[in-house]
Amino acid sequence: xxxxxSLDAQGISRPINLNLFxxxxxxxxIVSILHRISGLLLVLxxxxxxxxxxxxxxxxxxxxxxxxxxxxxxxxxxLWVLFSxxxxxxxxxxxxxxxxxxxxxxxxxxRKTAYLVMVAAxxxxxxxxxxxxx
Amino acid sequence: MNQTGLRDWVLQRLSAVIxxxxxxxLIVFFLxxxxxxxxxxxxxxxxxxxxxxxxxxxxxITIHAWIGSWxxxxxxxxxxxxxxxxxxxxxxxxxxxxxWGIEILWS
Lengths: 134, 107
Prior knowledge:
The structure holds two protein chains of two kinds. Helix content of chain A is 71%, strand content 4%. Chain A is mainly α. In chain A, helix 1 (27-44) packs across helix 4 (73-100), helix 1 (27-44) packs across helix 5 (107-132) and helix 2 packs across helix 3 (60-69). Helix content of chain B is 85%, strand content 0%. Chain B has helices at 6-32, 38-46, 48-76, 80-105. The interface between A and B is medium-sized, with 22 and 23 residues.
């Protein structure tokens, strides 16, 4: 059996292997990590976004072609992921900027705005998903 | 990255506001044109000011993406070799994306 706990200098039992699933994450932490994940996703999707811009502007034929291609369920799902990340990152970013400006920095309020960001983003992302559903 | 990180901090927020305004404007444009056709879309980008603004926003995206990725890489990619491989590849992607953006807007 692997030892899971050790005693620290004060004789208090401390876990050796941190089990991330055993933690309770406050909404402020979830908003923050999702902001990072959506941001990284958007960075990775920059070439895809440029490709969309290129194909949409190249010619009337490529514009129509793009519309046909995006009827493909898989590409449509990709588009939905892209917009979901964008919407979420935008909302969480606005909250971040408002807090940088000095408003809503207390834990009580930042907890509420964290829920607000997640719920508002979830509503728009769901609406978008329904609209893009083939 | 500079000594205090203040410049990065300010650039990250300034670029965020610029990208955010552009994104919201584009969303409003899409909402105003539910059945967007090629003529209208191409017409928007035929203006020099729209191309210049779009390029400016693309430039800000490069800065924003770089600072954000640097922060994330510094936090999670601890082995220095892996971190710098990731950041080097990313800088290449971002640089060529910017060049590609110019090509798209001016051809």
